[in-house]
Amino acid sequence: MEINTEKYLVVVNLHAGSKKCERDWPEIKELLVKAGFEMHIVFTERQNHALQMTLDLIEKKGFRKIIVVGGDGTLNEIINSVFKQKRYRTMEIQIGLITVGTGNDWGRMYEIPETYKEQVKIIKNGRFILQDIGVVKYRHASEEDNRYFANIAGMGYDALVAKKTNLMKQKGKGGAIVYLLNLLSGLFQYKNVQLDIEADGKHVFSGKVFTMSIGICKYNGAGMMQLPFAVPDDGLFDVTVIRKTTKLRVIKNIKNLYDGSFISMPEVETFTGKKFTIRSTPADKLFLETDGESLGHSPLDFEVIPRAAKMIVRKRYAISD
Asked: Domain 134-306 classified CATH 2.60.200.40?
């Protein structure tokens, strides 16, 4: 097996940000070259291509430094490749992200600057946090599968909006406005789901749920602060459950999703824990998305993996130089 411990594997998703990445890639590449990165550049061609390609390159070529050029979905695939590979411990592989996606919610957590020049500088500095990672076991049709995630998993209404948004992305339409439009239009399609939730083996909730988020970081949906108290390296999931509510209540409180103040509403409950078990009635009624990627359905089992991913961040969030 080859060893590429110093060369950077650069994984580029030209479709990210409704093909914004395709337009901006020449500028990004020039900045990376000027910064002196020794690089092996690859381009994704389809969904989950980044996952399999990166997994193979880590195991066969020995890459331990990865730069992701894309959005939260591309980062999610890279996280899954790192946690599925068998060559290194996960925290021995460093991951930096140049945000060119639709939502860029992982970058928002760490206040990653918008300019590519500043983002390249952050990656060059190499300061990092050992971030928690979530893993969820779910069903897809009759088969069981699992997925790792670095940001937030959404269920119920959140998963419906993600699915509608992903379908529009495939047609070349994306951005925060598209997400907001789907957030409103989905109200007329969605039906609340009966859930039972266990946290660390204890029953904590039973009732009809409008939407639910569980995760490591604070933001999803292009800037909505669904988990306002989340700490990305405390070894705990943060969970927000919004019980059955009216369409009018949702519309009136959309603005409060962006600053986290919605959690003061009486129909909202929050939890923390290391493991969550979520069952719906009927059993396959609750749908799931992780980091904006639409997956399968309930029953669901979540577990946090503490301080398991080496993520390049700004100095103020880093634990080490």
From this structure: yes
Q: For 220-236, how does the pLDDT look when each residue is reduced to its tens digit (9 = 90+)?
A: 988 999 999 999 999 99
- Residue-wise pLDDT tens digits, 4-41: 778 999 999 999 988 899 999 999 999 999 999 999 99
Element (H, E) at 297: strand 293-312
| Neighbour tally for 97: CB within 10 Å | 28
Alpha carbon distances (Å) from 78 to 97, 99, 248, 286? 10, 14, 39, 26
The C-alpha atoms of residue 158 and residue 213 are separated, in whole angstroms, by 8
CB count within 10 Å of CB 163 equals 17
Return the domain boundaries, the chain.
8-131+309-317, 134-306
What is the third-level CATH fold of 8-131+309-317? Rossmann fold (3.40.50)
pTM of the model: 0.93
Give the containing element (helix H, strand E) for 132: strand 128-140
Tokens of 114: 């918008």
Tokens 């300061």 belong to: 127
**Which pair of structure tokens corresponds to residue 148?**
């790792």
